[in-house]
Amino acid sequence: NRFCAASNNRTGFLCDDRATCVPASQVCDSVSDCRNGEDEQEKLCGDLPRSLPGYLVFRCSNPVYWVYADQRCNGMNDCGDCSDEMGSLAACPPCGSEWWSCSPVLYEYCSCIPRRLCRDGVQHCLSWSDEYTC
């Protein structure tokens, strides 16, 4: 089993050295992160996502689409329909301390926007709460 927890407790892939934990989204990205390159091997990357171990994959609500497991609950709309950020499949916690909860205007976000966008003079929430409350 090569499951490991990378930075920020994100799902990762354990290298042969049993010490290096590569974040899921850096597996099969054409860059060898493991010393022996096992994160880029044909048997792992040959038929994405089928060739990946299940713990590295998150299936979007539309089963045609998938994202790497560490992209689930990262605040970004990686699936395109927010199923990686909202709903029972994703099971994400509420917005973290670095996020502001609102209905975003931009499709890039789902139910939270980064707090760094608060009071920047640009509307990011339908309610404008990012400019007046946040």
From TrEMBL:
Gene Ontology terms describing biological process: vesicle-mediated transport
Membrane topology, record value: Single-pass membrane protein
Subcellular location: Endomembrane system; Membrane
Pfam families: Ldl_recept_a, LDLRAD1_C
Domain LDLRAD1-like C-terminal residue range list: 93-132
Keyword Oxidoreductase: no
Superkingdom, natural source: Eukaryota
One cellular component term from this protein's GO annotations in UniProt: plasma membrane
Keyword line: Disulfide bond, Membrane, Repeat, Transmembrane, Transmembrane helix
Protein name per the record: LRAD1 protein
Protein encoded by which gene: Ldlrad1
